[in-house]
Amino acid sequence: MGADEHRLDVLRRLVESDRAPDSARVELARSLARSDKLDQSIAMLLLIVERKPELRLELVRLLIQKTSRQPRDQRNWQEAEHALVQAEKALPREIEKLVILRVDLLLAQDRLANALSVLSSAQAKEPRNLQYRLALARLTQRKGESTAALQILEQAEKDLGPSLDLQLARLDYWGLEAGDAAKAAVAKLAETRGQIPDANRPEFLDRLASVEMLRGEPTLARQYWRELVALEPGNLRVLLGLFNLAMEAADHADALGLVSTMRKAEGEQGTFWRFAHATLLIDQARRGENKARKSSADDLGVLRGLAPSLPNDDRTGGVPRCYRLRLPNSRGVMTMSSPTSGPSTWGIPNPRSYDG
Predict the structure, then answer these.
(1) What pTM was computed for the model?
(2) What single-letter DSSP state applies at residue 235?
(3) Integer Cα distance of 298 and 296 in angstroms
(4) Which of 89, 160, 164, 222 sits at 20 to 30 Å (Cα–Cα) from 206?
(5) Which of left, alpha, beta for 197 (phi over 0: left; psi -120 to 50: alpha)?
(6) Can you list the alpha helix ranges (DSSP code H) found in the chain?
(7) pLDDT(288) > 50
(8) For the chain, what percent of residues have pLDDT higher than 70?
C-alpha cells in the first residue's frame, strides 16, 4: 500500500468511529478529492455541511467538477445549483467566493452572457477586487476579445501589484493564444519560476506544463513536470502525465523508470502503475522490442492482474467500476473508456479523469 492509500485507509478507519472529530472527516473528504474520488468526497461533505457550513463552498466546486465531466447531453445541474443556493443562504458574508462559484457554474453551463452580467455587477461594487478582474479577463478572452482581456490583466497589475494569481492568469491567457508573441510570453514567464516561493512553485510548474501541452510543446511540458515531481515525488497525476509523454516519445527507458516511481508511490496493489506497466509491455511487444527476452514473473503478474478488466469482461480486477482498458494506440498511448465520459487519454491534460 502506497503512502497516499495508507493515509486514506487510516482516515477511513478513524471516521468510522462515532466519536471521530469532524476535522478527520474534513481531511478524509479533501484527501479523497485530491485522489480524484469525487463521489466519495461529495458524500463525506454532505454528512457534515450542516455542522460546518463553510464546507458548502468546497461541495459546490466538487459538484461543478463532477457534472462537467459528464457528456453534455447527460449533465444535470440541479444538484450543483441547489448546493450553491444553500451556500448563499448559509454564508452571506462570503460574497467574493460565492460570486466566483456562480460565475463558474454559469460558465460550465455555457451561459457566458449571464456569467458576465453577474461578474460586472459584483465588480461595480468592488472595483479593486483581484479575483473579479481575473475572472473578467477570462470571460473577455472567451468572448474572442483577446486584446481587451490582456489589458484587464495589465491594469490589474498596475492597480494592485504583482501576485502569483496574476502570473497564473497570464499563463492561462497566453496558453490560449497563438503565434510567436505567445510563445515568447510563455518563455518569459517560465524564466520567473525560480523566483516563485517554494510553497507555490508546484502550482506554477503544473500550470506551466499544462500550457506547454496546449501549445504543442511536449518536451517543455516534460521538463516542467519533472521539476514538479522533484518537489512532489508522489504526485501520481503528474507522474502519469510524464509516463504518457514518455510513451508518445517512444522513450521506454524513461517510461519504465516512471512505472517504478509510481509503484513506490502507490504500493504493490496500486492500479495506475500496473496499467502503465501493461501499456509499456504491450507497446514493446508491438514494436518487437521484447521478443529477445523471456517475460518476467513481474510482467506476467501485472498482465494477469489486469486481465479481468480487459474489454468484454465485466469484472473489475481492481480497476474502478465501469472502466475498461483499451489497447495502446499507434503512439503507445493507453486510453480508458467509461459509459459516462467515453475514451480518455491518460495524462493529457488531466490523466485522472474519473472517480475511483
Answers:
(1) 0.67
(2) -
(3) 5
(4) 160
(5) beta
(6) 3-15, 22-34, 38-48, 56-68, 78-90, 95-108, 112-125, 130-142, 146-160, 164-175, 180-190, 201-214, 218-231, 236-248, 252-266, 272-287, 297-306
(7) yes
(8) 75
